[in-house]
Amino acid sequence: MMKHTSSWCQTPPSVTVRVKPNSARSLQIRRGLRMKRANGQDAQGPPQKSQSGRRREEMHYPKMSLPPTIVIQRQEMASYFRLFADDLILDFLWMDCCCKMTDKYLLAMTFVYFKRAHFTLAEFTRRNFFIALYLANTMEEDEEENKYEIFPWALGKNWRKQFPRFLKQRDKLWTRIEYRAAVSRRCCEEVMAIVPSHFVWQRERLEHHSGAQRQYGDRDQAKMPRGPTASPLLCALCNRTARLDQGPDFSSSSSGGSSGQAPHPLPPHPFTSTLGLEKTPPRATASHKKVTATKRQAQHSSCCCAEKVPRDKSSGSLHDPSMDWIGKE
Amino acid sequence: MEELSRWVREAGRFIRRCCCGEEEENEEEKGRREEEEEEEEVKMEELSFRKSRSSTSLPPAESDAYQFSSSPSGSQPHWFQTLQVRRFRVQRGRSNSDPLRGNSQPDEFTWKSGLRFGTENSYLSLEKLGEGAYASVYKGISRINGQLVALKVIRMKTEEGVPFTAIREASLLKGLKHANVVLLHDIIHTRESLTLVFEYVQTDLAQYLTQHPGGLHSHNVRIFMFQLLRGLCYIHSRRILHRDLKPQNLLISYLGELKLADFGLARSKSIPSQTFSSEVVTLWYRPPDVLLGSTDYSTALDMWGAGCVFVEMLQGAPAFPGVSDVFEQLQKIWTVVGVPSENSWPGVSQLPNYKPDWFLHSEPKQLRSVWKRLNQLPYKTEDLVQRMLTVRPADRISALDSLKHPYFSTLPPPIMHLRDTVSIFRVPGVVLETEVRDICNPGRKVRPSLLPAAKCW
After folding, report:
1. Given A143, B105, B307, B374, which is the most exposed site by the fewest CB atoms within 10 A?
2. Nearest CA of chain A to the CA of B313: how many Å?
3. Which of B30, B158, B279 lies at the smallest CB-CB distance from A164?
4. What is the pLDDT of residues B410-429, one digit of tens each?
5. How many CB pairs under 8 A join A and B?
6. Which residues on neighbouring strands pair with residue B194, listed in sequence order?
7. Where is the composition biased (Polar residues) (chain B) (predicted)?
8. Any idea what the Cα angle at residue A112 is, between residues A110 and A118, rounded to 5°?
9. Residue of chain B whose alpha carbon sits nearest to that of A51
10. pTM of this structure
């Protein structure tokens, strides 16, 4: 972790990306702007961020007319990516090989919720990840049952007893983001554009898993969450399809070195053959994934900065450990 | 009036005292104490109520004034009940005009009372307007600024938390500000319930249709349709599908402003490849492609519903009514537009519910032969209906294009260039005509509800 943090310190201090406001909702825009904080304040740690954020909003609300931005601190993006080094989350993503609840858009929304909730870095936790992901699924997916699979992963064996509390926490998060759970595609894409080659942004859902697909819902009558202890079900529709194509795509998009050794961080095909197993994949695999993921982050931090234009001088000098990534409708 | 305004001035002072020393914080709305004592509560209640009434500058005998009486009832244990509502309205609907709508002043007016948004005691609930599957709707009044509001109170089941419909509705509406979309003022989230606070709109199209049976005045149909399509154009441009268009969900104000409401089934279609439900839209208003089981639908979904509403306003009866399942519904549609074939709709035979042998053969008919009212109207009316009720979704007219249709060319041109939040009734010359038939006033030509309105606004 240290390694990549230091490499990020050499990046240009700040980046501002303005997004044309046309497609955006005005309220969000204005709020977004106000999330931009002086770096000094950030360094002290953000006490009651959501409160102070709101206060500022109310004061400036009528005057704001600038284009929409949210400022994404580099540590925030890094902390978010660090979640994907968590073995449990990695296994969870791997299990959802059809990307039914963890496709790239839902994962980007999850991050946007973290931002809108003004989470401190310490709050970039596995638990909050699952809560925000559940909220993203609530907003976007009409297929209600897929997201229940999140329960056993987030709550463990006792999930049946604990899920009401989990849902309360989702509601709390919803309140904390000021009930703004709608995230536009554009906003998601801006977030993904920060480190476009990160493996989570390669998680495309295939067409046969989208749309109004009620027909094959009965293929699996008992749609009980399976959880981490059971192996994922074989998906007849996805079985050995497009996943293979993603390998080359991925390595070409990442610059240089790692592409050669890039075993897909979520390698579905080695495991699709072992779908009969009752156990989760061995830990060793997971930690291997972790290493690659981390390396990749370090690498992309610089390339992503290179392609962006530093514009906002207020964000500080070269020593400033933060960098503003902006992507928002 | 004199006395009333003096009373109000005193009331203002009283309230400032109540919330001692918190004036500086009014702007930031921070550090408010959560609860006030019960007794004070009751007093504030009356104050806010009277204040709100006074701020309307209505003469005391005005239509609105008789709606409430401010006599607090001691027998009621809960402060919500301290205001009694006398229910001798003749027409539910447009008679109980919102005191603040259309007035030039009220928006600037705010109470220095220390009440803030997001808390329960900032609203006073007056009477129940309706009961839904998961929510009750009350008419209420904001103690912050005296505006009438509609309070949609969603009960929360302990297990499930906030229903996803409410999460979507509130999240989507938070981003929508348009004269033809109901305005979400505030959200109150407590342990037991979630309350969405909306602007109060007097009636809805279903009630309006009931009140004026046999079809609406063609001029009014045009005005309502324009607003419906303007609202749809706005939400569609933000990639939001309403998915439940029907007269009940189209609110109508006393002026004739139409507002899209009930976004419980609505969703954003901005992000590609998410899952969609095919169980959307009340059957009668559901488009044939969705009935046929199409796995992908988009904004054209709402356009079909809008077309059905169009016919319903003209005819005074639903376009495709009275059926209970998907196949009957399809058959109803086919009897008007004909059974589609691969020629007329490439790919239709691939749709799951396309069973040509189940459908009785029928040829497309002239719409004016099915819906007689179209006979009496210029051809362009039928043409627009035809374009909206096109079976193949890709060929169906969009909301944006329909606004440019010649059907609307008789409306004053400035109507096309309004800012989102401006009502079309701000354009000179745009007024609702008196409906010919009115079940509440069979002998009268002029709707009484419009008379006071004309005086005041």
Report:
1. B105
2. 31
3. B158
4. 999 999 999 999 999 999 99
5. 133
6. B154, B189
7. 66-77
8. 110
9. B30
10. 0.67
